[in-house]
């Protein structure tokens, strides 16, 4: 059985659509735990009517205690071996429970997730990029094996509970509960991922997330800005209790830095200047207390395609970015490079995607870079042209696919030659399973998820 937990607060205009999508699931062996969290409108009355019509609905009505508390109550009352969360103003595809359940059973996963749509008030829908959904591969974690994938999963998984189905035991056996703050997902997802032994994903968008509804407390409330600090305090304490804080130090640090940047952008100009600066100061104090090295930056020289620039964290300082695809011009650039850049550079980050095929100029480029930066470490991004794109959930081949394959063979040889040409080369391979773009873009136009994946690997080197 799957228990679907639905906290509802002041969603009278949305709850019927939500419940209609859940009770009409193609998979019938479900129970629906519906919690009216002290609504002031007609949400409670509507929930009661639905409970009278469908015996699978367990209706709980209580005073307002917050969504996190409601979710905990739902877990406590759940009879199913597996649980899902749906917000009362959202709705789900009729196949969501069945597809996630089939996947979690087939692979014996602790967590299985998919993607979602963004739904706006005018009822138009906009599909988010699939790469935002949970991990793009099956993965098992046992002790220190596959530690790299575990780190990557923690850093890249969206911090939202409603994308996924979970084994209920993952919460109960590890005593994982929602803190009573506005962004409880932010705290709980990293805890669940730490304890999960297997996480899977299906490449379908099955959840419909309603954006910017006028009555949403999240849209008119700055609490998440302060509560993010509380959320990560819970995360840090949990990781320390499990003796894993040092192992995942870099990933937790990057998670919080990214969260801080997100909140800074979201609230800048929308609250008073003093209130904004006060909260930013709290973020920085938290980072100083828990991640003392968070301000340390590496000075980078970037050479290559725009993907090189796009996968670099804002934490690091880019001294220069040279993009020209004429490899001869890259050689000239290095030959005449400013001495200050040479003396200040900590790492060179480069790729050869898009360069013209000229072996003489390529050898000259290697010669110049070995002269100017003899002992400097180089991060070599082994980027290739993408052969596939996704259109309406179907994988398709780019035009001139044979030409693309031939160019990729040339790139493979160039990367191999460069690796042999100098010491201190850190090579980063692109994940082939992520080598696709949306809607027939350029074969050089990498997806956000692939760029984040490369960024994670660069961060690990730095």
Q: How would you explain this protein's 3D organization?
A:
Residues 123-145 and 215-220 have low confidence and may be disordered. The strands form three sheets. Strands 1, 2, 3, 4, 5, 6, 7, 8, 9 and 10 form a ten-stranded mixed beta sheet that branches. Strands 12-11-13-14-17 form a five-stranded parallel beta sheet, sandwiched between helices. A three-stranded mixed beta sheet has the order 16-15-18, with no helix packed on it. The protein folds into three domains: 2-218, Spore Coat Polysaccharide Biosynthesis Protein SpsA, Chain A (Alpha-Beta Complex), CATH 3.90.550.10; 231-290; 299-461, 3-Layer(aba) Sandwich (Rossmann fold), CATH 3.40.50.1110. With 462 residues, the chain is of the alpha/beta class. It is 42% helix and 20% strand. The protein has helices spanning 15-23, 43-53, 67-77, 96-106, 147-156, 168-172, 184-195, 223-241, 249-267, 273-290, 306-310, 327-335, 339-344, 359-372, 401-421, 448-461; strands at residues 2-8, 30-37, 57-62, 82-85, 91-92, 111-119, 125-127, 139-140, 164-167, 198-210, 299-303, 317-322, 347-350, 378-382, 388-391, 394-397, 425-429, 436-438. Strand 15 and strand 16 (394-397) form a beta hairpin. The chain contains 16 helices and 18 strands.
